[in-house]
Model the fold of this input.
Amino acid sequence: LILQNMGVNVSALVASLGVGSIAIALASKNVLGDVFASISISLDQPFKIGDYIEVGSITGNVENVGIKSTRVRRLTGEEVSIPNAKLMNAEIHNYARLHHRRDNIDVGVEYDTPKEVLKRIPEMLKEIARAEQGVEFIRCHFTKFGDSSLNFDLVIKSLSKDYNELLSRKESIMYKIFDQFSKEGIAFAFPSQTVYLRKE
Done:
């Protein structure tokens, strides 16, 4: 306005500034998006440093939340930098905030297992799971006629959020299932085929 009042033609200058502003805005779009996403992460706190998270195909422990990106250390050792804007638009699984862990134990027995024995297996597995410390029994059913086995699905819940604890409890239950089946004479199934030969 001052230059214009002094009689200077500022049309070209205003046009140049307009074009330059557009160029700068386009160039800084991604950077500003990451900065605003960083602020959103700080306010919303979907995770914090040290949490074990999963974002798409990337899983690992959060090591740093920066202005432009968040760094995650994968279990294989490498560090992955994820743009904050991408994080805000992604589905984040935070395993550090689990209250418990749930898992399945698949048990397959041979097809020639008597029907009376099959009917006893769910209750047998239920008793084994309920006797395990730190585990809650969810359900157990005869679920499938497999290619080589009759399949049962045992679902348990570890009362600890520690994944290693879940594996330890699951391992203990599987040893007990093996012992109980051996005692009852129940055979575990394995992939097998029956071949019929015919003489022409």
